[in-house]
C-alpha cells in the first residue's frame, strides 16, 4: 500500500516528538545530551538557582490512554497542514531549532482539547515536540525572529515550536545576610581596562589588546553598539571584544546557518581537556536579544548555562545568585531600568570600587558558586562577559 507524502511527513513528525514523563527520565539516564539537563543537580541549592523542567510521569493504562489521545489529536492537527508547512515543521523539529525555518501560521482561535484542558495550537505543538509538561501559553515566550513576535491579537499565529522558548521562573530571593562576593567588583588600578571579573588574578583586566578594543568601550558618546561580548577560557580571554550593534546576536560554537559570534573560529591555546570538552558542548550556544523590557538570553544548546546578573536578584540582597538556565529556556538577564536604580551598599569596603552593574556573566555547561568546587567564574572552562553600553 502506497502512502502519500503528507502521511509520511506526519508519521515522521510523530516519531520526532519529545519524550515525556517516564520516557524523559530514561532519556536523561541514557543519552549524553539529555543527561546534561540533570548534570550538577545541586545547582538550585544556594549557589545556583535555576528553572528546572518538570517531569510528570504516569504509569500503566493511564499513560497509554493519554498517549493515544495525544497521538490522535496531533495527527488531526498535522493532517490539516499543507505539504510545504509539514516540511518546514519537520525541518525545525529535526534540526532542534538550529536551522532557520519559516513561521507556521495557523488560525489563532483554533484551540484543541486534550483531556480536561483546551490548548492553543502553539502550546499544543510545543507540548508535542519540546516540553510535554507545558500547561499554559504564559509559560512560553516568542523569539524575536518570529512573525508573531509582539503581536497580541492577530487572525493568524505562528505555531512553529522552535520560534518559542520556555520562560525561566526565578526562585524566591535569598535571605539578606550574605555579603556580596568580591568577584563582583572591578579593580581600579588597571589602566585602559573595561568592567571585568576580579577573579582572574593576574589577567583580571580585559586588556584592550589593540586600539580597537579600547575604542569599543571608551569612545565618548558612542551609541553604535549596545553591548560588547568577551569570551574567556578559565582566566584567559580568547579573541577580541565582539561589538554588538544588531538587536539580536547568536553566540555559538557550531550552528547550522550560524551568523554572529562563532567561538569555534577563535584561536585558543588552551590544552586543558576539560576546556576542550566543554567547548565542544557549546553547540548552538545562546541567543542574546535586546528587547523593549531588557536583554534576554535564550539557551539554544543541549546543556545548561549559568548566569549572574545584578538585575536578576532582589536589590536588598547582599549576594548575587548564579541562575541555572536549562536548554530551550529564556531568561531576562538584564533590566536597564533596574540597573540604573541599583545603588551600592553604604559600606566603605564597596565605596572604594566602581559599580559594575552593567555586566552579565554567563558560563557554558559548568556552574560556579557556593555549591560547586568552582567558587569563581574564572574557574569555569568556557564563559562569557557581556558588558552593556550605559550611555
Layout of helices and strands:
Elements: H1 5-15, H2 22-30, H3 32-35, E1 48-51, H4 60-78, H5 83-94, E2 105-107, E3 112-114, E4 117-119, H6 121-129, E5 140-142, E6 156-158, E7 164-167, H7 211-218, E8 227-233, E9 236-244, E10 248-252, E11 260-262, H8 273-281, E12 286-291, E13 294-299, E14 305-309, E15 322-325, E16 329-334, H9 336-341, H10 348-351, E17 359-364, E18 383-388
Parallel strand pairs: 1-15, 7-16, 10-11
Antiparallel strand pairs: 2-6, 3-4, 5-7, 8-9, 8-18, 10-12, 12-13, 13-16, 14-15, 14-17, 17-18
Helix pairs in contact: 1-5
Keywords: Cytoplasm, Metal-binding, Nucleus, Transcription, Transcription regulation, Zinc
Organism: Lonchura striata
Pfam families: MH1 (PF03165), MH2 (PF03166)
Folded structure, characterized:
This protein starts with a helix and ends with a strand. The chain has helices at residues 5-15, 22-30, 32-35, 60-78, 83-94, 121-129, 211-218, 273-281, 336-341, 348-351, and strands at 48-51, 105-107, 112-114, 117-119, 140-142, 156-158, 164-167, 227-233, 236-244, 248-252, 260-262, 286-291, 294-299, 305-309, 322-325, 329-334, 359-364, 383-388. The model is unreliable at 21-47, 172-212 and 346-354 (pLDDT under 50). The strands form four sheets. Strands 1-15-14-17-18-8-9 form a seven-stranded mixed beta sheet. Strands 5-7-16-13-12-10-11 form a seven-stranded mixed beta sheet. It has a two-stranded antiparallel ribbon with strand order 2-6. 23% of the residues lie in helices and 22% in strands. Among the domains are: 69-167, SMAD MH1 domain (Smad3, Chain A), CATH 3.90.520.10; 227-344 and 353-388, Tumour Suppressor Smad4. The chain has 391 residues and is α+β, with helices and mostly antiparallel strands. Strand 3 (112-114) and strand 4 (117-119) form a beta hairpin. The relative contact order is 0.15. This is Mothers against decapentaplegic homolog. Residues 40-173 form the MH1 domain. Belongs to the dwarfin/SMAD family. Keywords: Cytoplasm, Metal-binding, Nucleus, Transcription, Transcription regulation, Zinc. Residues 226-391 form the MH2 domain.
